[in-house]
Amino acid sequence: MNNEFHKRIRSFGYAFNGFIWAFKTQRNLQIHIIVLILVVIFGIFLNVNLSEWIVFFICFALVISAELFNTALEKLTDIISPEYNEQAGKVKDLAAAAVLFSALISVICGLIIFVPKILQLL
Question: What is the pTM of this model?
Answer without folding.
Answer: 0.90
